């Protein structure tokens, strides 16, 4: 195996090339390799300067995230950075690709920095619940001041090296061959007798003390009250950089890093990072080969269909929209145009791109136009008969091997597939609204879906920039099943004495983007009502059922779009206020049912909601609907506003402890056993001393 850090001498310059694919993460071996390379170059009189560069697609994109949470191995990255900075010979970092996190910190510790013009830099540690703990919080502000440093560290977003704010970091941006230019630059340093230039000695970033303090104060205010630990620690460290001597600042940073890296939040955020990458690994990809996708058909130009079309156009695909008649077609095309116009108005695309996107779109009121499509996605109303009729017509017009997908949120994809003669080409692609923005895509694999069809679905997801998650056929797949359990828990608490407003406040405090009743008002109460009516004949009469939602719908209160739902909305406002009539309806239902209301603490509301989600998650796993617990987490993080810093419901349960969750479930199960009875998977895992993480593979 080649060394993870290659050492080569060119013309008196030692070139240290990190070669640790895919992203040159700074693993223990890489850190050792860099330190060894430094020592070798320092001890060799022939060497006048060093270059650190990355092989393959990028300069190191960070510390090796999989090493956090394990016992630390020497040398630590902060020591490596110090070694670089204290090297008596000039060290040049030559950046390309994505120089992120610890990778960028290595560059900050070097004495000179060059970058390919296409490179991007960033300090995304905050997205993992940590901070740039290899001196990044101390060195960055010394070069660029607090404003830009905090921008990089708190947003976590990469910045092109060509951005104005990035200029102070670089001595030169390179258009040509980076390695050749870096060696030439190092040669010039040797020839001119240029000194080392330790970042720790720089003071440019502190030159405007008032601006520095203002930036700190503004960020502190912006994050006040937020539950995440890392942003506050970052602000403290950047403040310390200006107040403390460098070495003391490093100690300060180290303590703050330890606080972050050992927190549950960081464990959860690291879990989320790997979970969304693991989700894309479908077993079918071992055999399945994706078919070519250039032309997509979408049937139905409503809100969801229009969003799907926009997502495809934005990804450079040709799209044919089909609607049932010309007026529906016109409305659908207008919806799509409006989405693309908004992107133009907001400056997200230029006029040429906007025109090119719409130029790839055509529409028709009959299915014949779908004959040449590689994939067709049906996005019409949730009605099995309508869908089956569409699929039988579709089967007759599409070319051989075209993938036929349904965007159903709940219906049985196996049954839909029976309407065709090619069930192996049928699968579910469950988009989330707005489909051109939401990154989650549940890829529903039916009994007869072929591996090639699955591979094509996954390839399409990636092309659209989505995170695909595999689900088997099940009423509500993964996300809507978990959501339904969450809502059942909420409804039972309402029945027993809580208000929708207490529920929403408690779940927002838990970290959900919106409370369950706010979400229902936003999505439209009529959607759930239609489903409840569909399922009414099969509802178990022994299960307690709150009728409040049905009463609201019968009164025409469908949520935000009608100005009334669980909340009241002023004309044009999305912010609701509690509605006393809703509370009166609730009280009267409780009276009718003979329920003596009791109060619920915030903690109990949160625990009941979490337990309901996790218990359903366990069922979903045991039934094989989801492939692994982390897939359920990915769905809930990306489709349902579950707080990322909790890692998703299954990770949150692991962090609470499965014994505790099972004991809570047993306690809740004294009433409404149908919802709370712990799934047998809990016993199985607890017996083996395992948790959900152990099932992630
Ligand atoms: C840090 O540096 C802290 C420093 C302070 C220390 C004291 N480690 O995303 P992709 C894997 S914190 C380990 O699909 P892309 C990834 O799991 C770190 N593994 O590729 C995947 O593995 P798989 C700060 C990593 O081209 C494979 O590489 N840095 C790491 O879409 C490909 O990844 C970051 O947060 C890592 N650091 O995007 C950057 N990075 O094939 C995190 C990637 O087995 N990384 N992997 O599934 C990224 O944002 C992106 O990977 C990317 C490339 C933009 C670099």
From TrEMBL:
Reaction(s) the record says it catalyses: a (3S)-3-hydroxyacyl-CoA + NAD(+) = a 3-oxoacyl-CoA + NADH + H(+)
Any one of the GO BP annotations: fatty acid beta-oxidation
UniProt keyword terms in alphabetical order: Fatty acid metabolism, Isomerase, Lipid degradation, Lipid metabolism, Lyase, Multifunctional enzyme, NAD, Oxidoreductase, Peroxisome
Domain 3-hydroxyacyl-CoA dehydrogenase NAD binding: start-end pairs: 295-470
Gene Ontology molecular-function annotations: (3S)-3-hydroxyacyl-CoA dehydrogenase (NAD+) activity; enoyl-CoA hydratase activity; isomerase activity; NAD+ binding
InterPro entries: 3-OHacyl-CoA_DH_NAD-bd (IPR006176), 3HC_DH_C (IPR006108), 6-PGluconate_DH-like_C_sf (IPR008927), ClpP/crotonase-like_dom_sf (IPR029045), Enoyl-CoA_hyd/isom_CS (IPR018376), Enoyl-CoA_hydra/iso (IPR001753), NAD(P)-bd_dom_sf (IPR036291)
Name of a matching Pfam family: 3HCDH_N
UniProt domain 3-hydroxyacyl-CoA dehydrogenase C-terminal: residue ranges: 476-569, 607-689
Pathway named in the protein's UniProt entry: Lipid metabolism; fatty acid beta-oxidation
Protein name: Short chain enoyl-CoA hydratase /3-hydroxyacyl-CoA dehydrogenase
Compartment(s) where it occurs, according to its Swiss-Prot or TrEMBL record: Peroxisome
Domain of life: Bacteria
Signal peptide range: none
Family: Belongs to the enoyl-CoA hydratase/isomerase family.
């Amino acid at each position: 195996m080649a060394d993870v850090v290659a050492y080569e001498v060119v013309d008196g310059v030692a070139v240290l090339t990190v070669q640790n694919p895919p992203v040159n993460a700074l693993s223990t071996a890489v850190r050792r390799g860099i330190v060894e390379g430094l020592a070798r170059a320092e001890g060799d009189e022939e060497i006048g300067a060093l270059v650190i560069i990355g092989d393959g697609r990028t300069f190191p994109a960070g510390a090796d995230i999989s090493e956090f949470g394990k016992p630390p191995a020497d040398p630590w990255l902060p020591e490596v950075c110090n070694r670089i900075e204290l090297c008596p010979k000039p060290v040049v970092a030559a950046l390309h690709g994505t120089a992120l996190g610890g990778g960028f910190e290595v560059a900050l510790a070097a004495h000179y920095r060059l970058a390919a013009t296409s490179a991007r830099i960033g300090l995304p540690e905050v997205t993992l619940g940590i901070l740039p703990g290899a001196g990044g919080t101390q060195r960055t502000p010394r070069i660029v001041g607090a404003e830009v440093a905090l921008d990089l560290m708190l947003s976590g977003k990469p910045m092109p090296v060509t951005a104005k704010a990035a200029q102070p970091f670089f001595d030169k941006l390179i258009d040509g061959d980076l390695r050749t230019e870096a060696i030439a630059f190092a040669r010039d340093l040797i020839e001119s007798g240029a000194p080392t230039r330790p970042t720790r000695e720089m003071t440019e970033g502190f030159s405007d003390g008032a601006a520095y303090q203002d930036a700190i104060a503004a960020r502190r205010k912006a994050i006040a009250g937020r539950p995440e630990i890392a942003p506050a620690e970052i602000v403290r460290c950047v403040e310390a950089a200006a107040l403390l001597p460098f070495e003391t600042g490093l100690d300060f940073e180290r303590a703050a890093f330890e606080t972050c890296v050992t927190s549950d939040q960081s464990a959860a955020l690291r879990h989320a990072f790997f979970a969304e990458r693991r989700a894309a690994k479908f077993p079918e990809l071992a055999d399945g080969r994706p078919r070519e996708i250039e032309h997509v058909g979408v049937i139905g130009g409503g809100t969801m269909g229009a969003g799907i079309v926009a997502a495809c156009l934005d990804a450079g695909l040709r799209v044919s929209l089909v609607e049932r008649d010309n007026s529906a077609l016109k409305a659908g095309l207008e919806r799509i145009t409006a989405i693309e116009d908004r992107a133009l108005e907001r400056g997200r695309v230029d006029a040429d791109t906007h025109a090119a996107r719409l130029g790839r779109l055509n529409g028709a009121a009959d299915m014949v136009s779908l004959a040449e499509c590689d994939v067709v996605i049906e996005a019409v109303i949730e009605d099995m008969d309508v869908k089956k009729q569409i699929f039988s017509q579709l089967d007759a017009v599409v070319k051989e091997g075209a993938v036929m997908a349904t965007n159903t949120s709940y219906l049985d994809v196996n049954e839909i597939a029976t309407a065709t003669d090619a069930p192996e080409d049928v699968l579910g692609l469950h988009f989330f609204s707005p489909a051109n923005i939401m990154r989650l895509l549940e890829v529903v694999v039916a009994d007869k879906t072929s591996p090639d069809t699955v591979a094509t679905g996954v390839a399409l997801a990636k092309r659209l920039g989505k995170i695909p998650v595999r689900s088997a056929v099940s009423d509500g797949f993964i996300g809507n099943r978990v959501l339904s359990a969450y809502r059942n828990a909420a409804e039972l608490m309402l029945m027993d004495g809580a208000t929708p407003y207490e529920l929403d406040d408690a779940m927002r405090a838990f970290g959900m983007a919106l409370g369950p009743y706010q979400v229902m008002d936003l999505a439209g109460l009529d959607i759930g009502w239609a489903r409840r009516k569909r399922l009414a004949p099969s509802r178990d009469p022994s299960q307690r059922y709150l009728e409040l939602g049905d009463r609201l719908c019968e009164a025409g209160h469908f949520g935000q779009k009608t100005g009334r739902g669980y909340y009241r909305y002023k004309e044009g406002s999305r912010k609701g206020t509690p509605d006393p009539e809703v509370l009166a309806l609730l009280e009267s239902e409780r009276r009718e049912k003979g329920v003596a209301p009791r109060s619920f603490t915030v903690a109990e509301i949160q625990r009941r909601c979490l337990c309901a989600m996790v218990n359903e998650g366990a069922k979903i796993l045991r039934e094989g609907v989801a492939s692994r617990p982390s897939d359920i987490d990915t769905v809930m993080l990306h489709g349902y506003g579950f707080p990322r810093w909790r890692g998703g419901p299954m990770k949150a349960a692991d962090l609470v402890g499965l014994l505790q969750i099972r004991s809570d479930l047993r306690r809740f199960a004294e009433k409404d056993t149908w919802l709370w009875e712990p799934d047998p998977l809990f016993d199985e895992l607890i017996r083996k001393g395992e948790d959900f993480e152990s099932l992630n593979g």
